[in-house]
Amino acid sequence: MRPQDPPQGGPAGAALPALETLKQRACESVELNAARLGALSRAIWSRPELAYEEQQAHDTMTRFFSSGELPGAAWAVQPRYKLGTAFRAEWGTAAPQGPRPLRIAFLCEYDALPGIGHACGHNLIAEVGAAAALGLKAALESLPQPAPVAVQITVLGTPAEEQGGGKIDLINAGAFDGLDVVFMAHPSQENAAYLPDVAEHDVTVKYYGKASHAAAYPWEGVNALDAAVLAYNNLSVLRQQMKPTWRVHGVIRNGGVKPNIIPSYTELEFYLRAPSMKDLSVLTEKVENCFKSAALATGCKVEIKGGENDYYNVLPNKSLQKVYKENGKKLGIEFISEDCILNGLSGSTDFGNVTFVVPGLHPYFYIGSDALNHTEQYTEAAGSQNAQFYALRTAKALAMTALDVIFKPSLLEEVREDFRQVKLKEEGQINPVEPNKESGIGIGACASH
User: Fold this and answer.
1) Which of 235, 435, 191, 151 is nearest to 334 (CA)?
2) Pairing state of beta strands 301-306 and 199-208?
3) What does DSSP assign to residue 1?
4) What is the pLDDT of residues 39-72, one digit of tens each?
5) Contact 42, 383 (CB under 8 A)
6) DSSP code of residue 159
7) pTM of the full predicted structure?
8) Do residues 263 and 255 lie in contact, with contact meaning Cβ atoms separated by under 8 Å?
9) Angle 82-86-89 (CA atoms, 0-180°, nearest 5)?
């Protein structure tokens, strides 16, 4: 029985035994390409590059998908796709004049952190995305006859997750238009089909005062450092009235020049986080009032500038999460409990913005180390051979889940309906959060952005 043939008297879609055979083929392909995938990850890891500067990582990824050594038909590769260090690679089963294909995408990140390299394991994200795409492609190529629906596999190289939001730039440029389901996976300390990554807003604050000799005539000066310190302390006082799910953290980037000069200029950078964009807007207003009042108290002028791209919270898709967990468990993945997800802490990612425009899955995976993200120890773990088993296992689970989406039409509809309902709720059109009512969204455990 071909995978596209339904069982006698059963619903349309793939027969389960045949679908399991395709999943096995996808896993075999990942194993077949394990050496070249490991080399890909190691090449990116060994040459860490910051956001929007990932020239070598971009070239490494595009060479990988352009290589004639990859099994099966060739990928169509677009280097420097809409951004200088983004790329797009595509392969499809559809003829150019055929019906609109089902478009499945895998995302690859590859930017590093300043000073400590790939301490968030983005080299592994790139590897997992590439491996899952190869596995899905091999499974579809193994079909004796075309699948019941035309399929297009897209691999998107998305730079600048750690700073700037490359995915947001790509969304605005139309790179996600027409995609049906998007997958990526992030390294962590545990396995989770979903963690509620929170919304995040960057803000840079500049205080302008007046320089003067700090000993001879300090009264002639206007102390910009006083404004920065007051602002910092204002935020500390605000924390008593902040919701437990809100986060405010930052640094004083410029605090003056010399002790005997009244500082005429100071600069702070802060990240604000909340479980939803609605909560984030409330928090942002409160924080900006802290900055403004410090300027008023010291007589300084203040300039408050938000980052170009706010990171949205990641929207869950329970249908995708359920199927991913089922496939992962078949591969031996042990997932953390729901209680652990709801009672932990979380970071932020520009994948959240993606989940507002297309259904997406963003699981987290253990890499064989208890080291925490954004540490030198995690950098070492992300480049270790030990991490390879866990990364490739995650890629297999993603490819298997994509096959479920392709060969189970009812699942695809459930995924789309989940997307519609969650997005409506998030936008306040279903059960809007009442004023002054505590948000009920939980927080998960992750270190991103």
Assistant:
1) 191
2) antiparallel
3) -
4) 999 999 999 999 999 999 999 999 999 999 999 9
5) yes
6) -
7) 0.88
8) yes
9) 95
